[in-house]
Design goal:
Elements lengths: L5 E4 L21 H11 L3 E5 H4 L8 H18 L2 E6 L18 H21 L3 E5 L4 E2 L7 H18 L4 E5 L8 E2 L4 H8 L8 E6 H6 L4 H10 L3 E6 L18 H13 L8 E4 L14 H18 L3 H9 L3 H12 L3
Parallel strand pairs: 1-2, 1-10, 2-3, 4-6, 6-8, 8-9, 9-10
Antiparallel strand pairs: 5-7
């Protein structure tokens, strides 16, 4: 098996710069142009939401959805790209305003399950069986609005229905503690994997860790990855960086805390993640002030920093590390890491 990494990115990582406080500041770029640029930078996998594949998906029949998905699959094939996963974008539909899978309205819950199953169908057409489930609005702004015991059971029931609808799908839960809701269900990888083991087929439910999401929970991304790797449940990563406990910033990987980034790469190396064949994904956004001509630089930078850190991990003095550990000279070990990162 190769010890080289494969990289993926989503089309939403090149955007127009709109935020809650201001309008777009860059022109849109069509997906074909994005895909060509992604390939040139060194990405081989594309992350998709269901409505990235089929815009206005709620207005279309399955025949129309299938036709559009097949057309996009051909575009990817022509560019030498593949779909890494398809995720149902339940949180942006007006029906999912109070959550979809944990909504108080049973009709909305069924809509959420059916749309999730439709995302599985799209994934199969696109040549992938990985469904990423980010439970964005599955939670609450006000605790008394939902019964958490019931809500967690509803999530198990939804996962089971999706698993039973397709024998090949692998569900990958992406945890996050907050935003867009105040309290999100399954806020950490521990929560996600505990729920995975309650499903009808735990072998087909794993986890995806995003650096910023772990940081927003006050946790260390490398340790979260280590937990999932020990269970053979780390089926995806979305690497980025985060400047404190703020909104989800999706900054260039390693741009805030280089040592944290080093340790994320280190644990992936220790867990032989590259040999698994799974993608290293980046969920990084261009700075709003970045001009359109450089609106993809953040992707190139993140990939370059990751690869440089791979070399830093692989060239770290293992004998010195072992000696420091044996002698419990952790100050020396810490200094050695810092000097290595500084190029000394």
């Amino acid at each position: 098996m190769s010890n080289e990494y494969k990289f993926s990115v989503g089309p939403w990582n090149v955007h127009e710069g709109a935020d809650p406080f201001g309008p777009p500041c860059r022109d849109s770029i069509d997906n074909i142009t994005k895909f060509k640029a992604f390939k040139a930078i060194g990405f081989d996998g594309i992350q998709f939401h269901d409505d990235d594949v089929v815009p206005e998906i709620e207005t279309k029949s399955f025949t129309e959805i299938s036709t559009q998905a097949k057309a996009l699959k051909k575009i990817l094939d022509d560019q030498g790209l593949e779909a890494e996963f398809v995720a149902p974008r339940l949180w942006e539909d007006p029906k999912g305003i109070d959550g979809a899978l944990t909504a108080n309205d049973p009709a909305i819950r069924q809509w959420g399950i059916e749309r999730t199953k439709r995302a599985v169908d799209i994934g199969q057409i696109m040549g992938c069986n990985m469904l990423v489930l980010w439970l964005a609005r599955e939670g609450t702004y006000i605790r008394e609005a939902k019964n958490p015991i019931n809500s967690y059971q509803l999530l198990v029931d939804a996962l089971n229905e999706v698993l039973q609808s397709n024998s090949e799908v692998r569900i990958v839960i992406e945890p996050k503690p907050n935003e867009p809701v105040d309290l999100a269900y399954l806020p950490t990888i521990g929560h996600a994997l505990a729920m995975a083991h309650q499903t009808c087929d735990p072998t087909r439910v794993g986890g995806l860790i995003e650096s910023a999401h772990a940081l927003l929970a006050g946790l260390d991304p490398a340790e979260e990855m280590g937990f999932a790797l020990q269970m053979n449940k780390l089926w995806g990563v979305h690497l980025n960086d985060q400047n404190g406990l703020k909104y989800d910033q999706d900054k260039t990987f390693g741009s805030v805390n280089l040592r944290s980034a080093f340790n994320q790469v280190r644990v992936l190396e220790l867990g032989q993640y590259a040999q698994s064949g799974r993608y290293v994904g980046f969920d990084v956004k261009a700075m709003r002030t970045q001009p359109a001509a450089h609106a993809m630089r953040h992707l190139e930078n993140s990939r370059d920093i990751f690869l440089q850190l791979v070399q830093k991990v692989r060239t770290f003095d293992q004998a010195l590390e072992a000696r420091c550990i044996k002698e419990r000279d952790y100050e020396m070990l810490e200094l050695a890491v810092m000097q290595h990162l500084l190029g000394n």
